[in-house]
Amino acid sequence: MMNQMTEAQAQWDTACKTLNEEFQLSADELPTIDTAKALFLQLVGRRELTQEAANALMYSLYFSGYLSVLHAFKQQSPDFEVPDYLHTHPVLEASNRWAQQATDIHLLSQLAQPIIHDTQAMLDQLN
Questions:
Q1: What pTM was estimated for this model as a whole?
Q2: pLDDT band at 112 (very low <50, low <70, confident <90, very high)
């Protein structure tokens, strides 16, 4: 079990590095990243995922956390303007691209389904 968690941690670290290289975004700067990481480790730690699927999952969790921050800002200040490009946000599109590259997309879809549902609900609330 410890080896699986080490593997999941390595996949998380690789996905974070990839996010940084692709978008110059540091996952650690997102206030909700510890929760996202814990969920990632819980999901991936029990299964073997390709790195492409791990990237897609991590990017999805990052985007969901980003939406949570925007939602909190909007609740605190109703005049807060939410970007209108959220449905085509580059991180969301990259997550979809990584998912399409994953050979284990069916497993990824199962793991990501609750995240996708929550993300869609947040997008609906923000628009």
A1: 0.92
A2: very high
